[in-house]
Amino acid sequence: MNKKSIVVLTIAVIFFLASGCGGGGGSGRYTIPPEIPTPGTGGGGGGTGGGGVGETDPDSLLASGWEDFRYGAFSSAINKFNQVLTITSITETQKIQAYNGLGWALTKSSGVESGYSSFTQASSSDNEARIGLAAALIQRGQKAGITQAIQLLEAVGLNNTAYRFTSTHPIGVSNAEAHAMLAFCYFWRGGVGDDDKARSQINIARSEDSSNDSAVAQIHKTLQDMGLTGI
């Protein structure tokens, strides 16, 4: 397998990680029910069914949207996060929370590229949105996007190997996976000192996730195949 094929494969791993087909301890990754009831009908794939049509409290809608998300009712979650964004009195914090939720619900429903715009709206201050936007940029496979992904992941705090990413919501990306994403980006960028940074990031990821069939394991193997030593 040549270097280009290895890179494409790893991009696919990160894409599936963000979209809900990877590891991450299983949180936030569910099979989408065959039929999602409309908001507020009491269904929603096991969600609460509250906060649907007629609800005007943004915090209630946000909580209900994430509850639907937790149970795989992504269409219902998308509707509720969008509903928050139609409320003219929402605060900037609620707006960012709604865009973050919308980005992840779209990602789980249709793939990480579909969440790009929403993640962009929330990434100024939300770490989950930064992770999602970074995954979308990596999936595009462009050098400028990789540089931006590094900036986003560093803004989360992941450049410090002692930092632990803990998501507030069940987005399904673990601390080890987030550090592995940054390792791949550093190695791909290939600047002065980037090999050392990639090595530190993937080693900390593997110290936490030593399984042989996870996204972290696949990124680790990719880095080995591409020539990164000391891992």
The CATH topology of the largest domain, please? Serine Threonine Protein Phosphatase 5, Tetratricopeptide repeat
Q: Could you spell the SSE succession in H and E letters?
A: HHHHHHHHHH
3D shape: elongated
Mean pLDDT: 83
How is the topology of this model organized?
Blueprint: H1 3-19, H2 58-70, H3 74-85, H4 92-110, H5 116-122, H6 127-140, H7 143-156, H8 175-189, H9 194-208, H10 215-225
Helix pairs in contact: 1-6, 1-10, 2-3, 2-4, 3-4, 4-5, 5-6, 6-7, 7-8, 8-9, 8-10, 9-10
Structure description:
The protein has helices spanning 3-19, 58-70, 74-85, 92-110, 116-122, 127-140, 143-156, 175-189, 194-208, 215-225. With 231 residues, it is an all-alpha fold. It has 10 helices and no strands. The chain has 2 domains: 3-29 and 112-225, Serine Threonine Protein Phosphatase 5, Tetratricopeptide repeat; 31-90, no CATH class. The two termini are 20 Å apart.
Keywords:
59% helix; mainly alpha; Serine Threonine Protein Phosphatase 5, Tetratricopeptide repeat; 231 residues
Question: What is shown here, in short?
Answer:
With 231 residues, the protein is mainly α. It is built from ten helices and no strands.
